[in-house]
Structures are given as C-alpha cells and as structure tokens.
Description:
Blueprint: E1 2-3, H1 12-22, E2 27-28, E3 33-34, E4 40-41, H2 56-64, E5 83-84, E6 94-95, E7 98-105, E8 108-115, E9 121-124, E10 129-132, H3 145-150, E11 166-173, H4 177-194, E12 195-196, E13 206-215, H5 221-242
Parallel strand pairs: 1-4, 11-13
Antiparallel strand pairs: 2-3, 5-6, 7-8, 8-11, 9-10, 9-12
Amino acid sequence: MLAGGSAFGLDTATGAMRYLEEHGIGFDMRVARVPIVPAAILFDLGVGDAKIRPDAEAGYKACKAATTTPPAEGNVGAGAGATIGKLFGMSRAMKSGIGTSAIKLDGVTVGAIVAVNAIGDVFDPTTGKLIAGARTKDGKSLVNSMAAILRGEPLPPALAGAATTIGVVATDVALTKAQASKVAQMAHDGLARTINPVHTAYDGDTIFALATGKSSKPANVTLIGALAAEAMAQAVVRAVRAARGIPGLPGATEL
Length: 255
C-alpha cells in the first residue's frame, strides 16, 4: 500500500487487510488467514489541508477499485500531494505525482509504480535534461539544485522526513525472497538516474518488490533487476510530467 498523509496514511493498510480478509486472502495460520500488507507513506501534510488524509476506508476502497487497466497518473492516490525540488524550501518547489511504467522482454514483464516526493530535482535520463525541481527565486525557471550547491549557494534548514519517494516493482516471474530483495535494491538505481540529489537524510526512499509467478520463465535476477531499474526511471519521469500544478506549485509542463 502506497499512500500520503504522513504516518496517518499508514492506516490505509488496515483497510487493505479488511478487504483481503473478506476475500480469503492471507497467510494461512490455520485458525485464520492473516493478510500481510507492507505499506509506505510520504509526507504531504504541507500541501492543502493537513486534516485531509487517507484512512482505512480509503485503503479499502482502493482495493475495491483495483483493475487491470492502466492506472491514473499525476495528482492521484499517493501522488495527490507529492512535490519535488525542495532543497531551497517549499516556496521554490514544484508539483509532482504518481507514475507507472512496464517493460516486456522475452516473455517477461517488469512493471513499476512510484509516487515521487523528493527533495531533489528530476531529470530525464534519456536526454539528461532537467525537467522539474527547485526554481529560481522569482519562480520562473529551474535552478538545478546540484549546480547551485556546487556554486556555493547556501541551503536553508530542511525538515527531516518531509520527503520520500515510494514505489513498487513487480514481475510475473517467480522469485524467492532473497531474489526479490535484490530486485528491489537494483530498482533504486532508477531513482538515482532520475532524481538528484537522491537518498538524502531528508528522504525515506522505499521500493517494494513482488513477483506473481505467473510466467514459466526462469528467474534471471540480473535481467529482472536491470529492467526494474529502467521501469522505475521511466515511471519517475512519467509521474512528474503527468502532475498538474496547483497554486504555488507549478507542474513540469507549466514552467
């Protein structure tokens, strides 16, 4: 479960557990099937009304609304309050969102979904172009945070835990827990290709990995991990480009 709302948003996993229990899905403990729902949340309470945040009912409804069609991107779900480019303060940040991507190769599918709520800027790795992030003081153009740091521009104090990019990578190949862990680890390279700086002390970047086992292809962890990183990078770019600006926080297409 991916959600906004800071720690309050972890309540969404309770709703997911209720839905799964109703459908007989969970770890068989003989006396009951116990759903195991890993969850990650991002800090977005500074965007809009901090009292409006996802709860258990939202998590339950998200499960009911699940579909095999491509999910919405941008200012929806965990991406509703996502922002980027916060190294120089929220007044110079931009709107971000949630994005997805999937790659099919030789009978193997690897997909990614990510809510991008980073301290750093976002680049398109195919062109190396900065597409969104911290803005200049007049708010009219991008500053390139790392370039500004190297020029010696001082950074204001940042609020620890005020950012976090959270996502999931998934494949239809069967993986062991150790293999899934390696895929998740490699998927973080997708964040490093697109977000700069990334994995800072103010980011709680988290990627889950899962495998459905529906494909009969053998588990080539190196290939799946490489595809996961690529899919994650594509999803980050899509998240930013799909985001619509709100007052004080323009989107990538509006600058």
